[in-house]
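pls design
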């Protein structure tokens, strides 16, 4: 009866049968959910709980909360990066390090008399 109702919904193949050593009959997720709900009533209650939370808007609120939390967390990271970049460029840290590097290069230059530099 459930498979016939799925067929009316025009979902793709609902059951597939494979022959051979590892053959068997396989169903799409909906068939697996239906089968599992008959075997384990706790599974069925869990599915109903999730569906109820989704339909009541509670699940959407939870997803919205998580998205908001992630947004604020990433915004904080971006702000920290912007402060670091400002210190690097406008604060003169980059220029200071470039001068130090140039002085180190000059000290390390090997000058051999008679060879062009």
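designed seq:
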């Amino acid at each position: 009866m459930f498979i016939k109702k799925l067929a009316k919904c025009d979902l793709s193949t609902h059951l597939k049968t494979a022959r051979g050593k590892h053959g068997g009959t396989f169903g799409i997720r909906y068939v697996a959910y239906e089968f599992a709900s008959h075997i384990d009533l706790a599974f069925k209650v869990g599915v109903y709980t999730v569906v109820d939370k989704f339909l009541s808007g509670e699940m959407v609120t939870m997803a919205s909360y998580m998205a908001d939390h992630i947004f604020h967390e990433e915004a904080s990271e971006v702000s920290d990066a912007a402060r670091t970049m400002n210190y690097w460029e406008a604060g003169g840290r980059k220029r200071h390090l470039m001068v130090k590097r140039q002085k180190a290069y000059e000290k390390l230059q090997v000058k051999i008399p008679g060879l062009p530099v």
